[in-house]
What does this fold into?
Amino acid sequence: MLNWDQIFALRREHETLADEISGRMLAMMDYNPTKFIEFLKRKTGGTHNLKYHDSDTRAQIVLQGYEDEKRKIRFANELFPSSGGYRNNYHSKLIDDDV
It folds into this structure.
């Protein structure tokens, strides 16, 4: 059975993954993460929520996810320049799509 500290740690891990995926999705949609990060850093109350990391840590996680995905997109565009790159699953074309 988990104690409260373990439960909160597990919840923070899940929220960390969500923040990282948010950064990746912002990159895939070609949005700038600045406004989202500003939103995370807004002060809404005087207490720290045990479910989340502090806003600076969350901002770093979002930015890291964003930068990682942008790097993948640049690399894919270098590998497949004539097709506009293999940007993501929504814009990709399989070899046998015409069959």
Observations:
- The mean pLDDT is 83.
